[in-house]
Every structure is written in C-alpha cells, then in structure tokens.
C-alpha cells in the first residue's frame, strides 16, 4: 500500500533531508523506522530536500509498505521508532500513482534571518 506522510521536524541536528553516509538525516531516520516496521528495506521519497539545520512544518513524503497496516497504526509506529525531533503528523493511504515529489502541486518556503550580520539579511530586508 502507498502512503503519504506529512512530517514536521527540527533540523538542528540533521545534515539535511537526503540520506548521508554516517551523518544523521531526516530521510535516513524515516527509512530506518519504516524498514523496521515493514521488516524489509523501504524507500522513502520526499517532496523536496532541505539543507542541514533547516526545519519543516509540513514536509510530504511517500512510501510503499508491503505490510498490511492502517494509516493510524503506521503513524503511531513510526513516531514510536524515531527521534523526538521528527514527528509524522498525518498518514494517508493514496493511490499507487502518488509520488511525493512528482505529485506535489505547490511548495512553500519561509526564510527567517537573524539580526546579526549576514549576507542573507539584505535579502530578507528587500
């Protein structure tokens, strides 16, 4: 069954979304938890990638599970097997043609700049 996951995370301790060799990533955490639940290696697709230290309020991912499991049980199982800085907010069963990246209709990014000197402060002020 194909599932759409809506995820929230604090990116402070992550080296971005994408799986990194010997570095903690959001996709890596989700892959580990979902593979444990499905008792096989799963592939988690994200709607996009974030850089190291970047947070997300509603990142979308998709995963195909071989195990027969309800959306509610899958959400609870992932959240029980993942770090406290990542939460699966929603799990929805979707059609086989749904793919988090290719089915995305829009993406919204919000940039916040500190008051300290930064080349980005000029970008935020304009």
Number of helices: 3
Structural class of the secondary structure composition? Answer: alpha+beta
Give the integer mean of the pLDDT values.
Answer: 82
**Termini separation (Å)?**
46 Å
Strand content: 15-25%
What is the approximate shape?
globular
Secondary structure: elements and pairs:
Layout: E1 2-9, H1 26-38, E2 44-46, E3 56-64, H2 71-80, E4 86-94, H3 119-125
Antiparallel strand pairs: 1-3, 1-4, 2-3
General description of the model:
- It is a single chain.
- By secondary structure, the chain is an alpha+beta fold.
- The protein has three helices and four strands; from the N terminus they run βαββαβα.
- The chain has helices spanning 26-38, 71-80, 119-125, and strands at 2-9, 44-46, 56-64, 86-94.
- Helix 1 (26-38) packs across helix 2.
- The longest helix has 13 residues, at 26-38.
- The radius of gyration is 16 Å and the shape is globular.
- The model has no long low-confidence stretch (mean pLDDT 82).
Structure keywords:
four-stranded antiparallel beta sheet, alpha+beta, 4 strands
What is the structure about, briefly put?
The chain is α+β, with helices and mostly antiparallel strands. The chain has helices at residues 26-38, 71-80, 119-125; strands at residues 2-9, 44-46, 56-64, 86-94.
């Amino acid at each position: 069954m194909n599932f759409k996951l809506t995820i929230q995370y604090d990116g402070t301790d992550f080296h971005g979304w994408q799986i990194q060799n010997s570095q903690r990533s959001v996709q890596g955490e989700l892959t580990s938890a979902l593979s444990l639940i499905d008792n096989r290696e799963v592939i988690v697709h994200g709607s996009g990638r974030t850089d190291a230290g970047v947070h997300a309020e509603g990142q979308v991912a998709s995963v195909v599970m071989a195990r027969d499991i309800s959306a509610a049980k899958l959400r609870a199982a992932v959240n029980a097997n993942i770090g406290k800085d990542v939460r699966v907010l929603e799990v929805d069963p979707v059609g086989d043609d749904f793919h988090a990246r290719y089915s995305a209709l829009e993406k919204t990014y919000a940039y916040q700049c500190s008051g300290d000197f930064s080349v980005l402060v000029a970008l935020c002020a304009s």
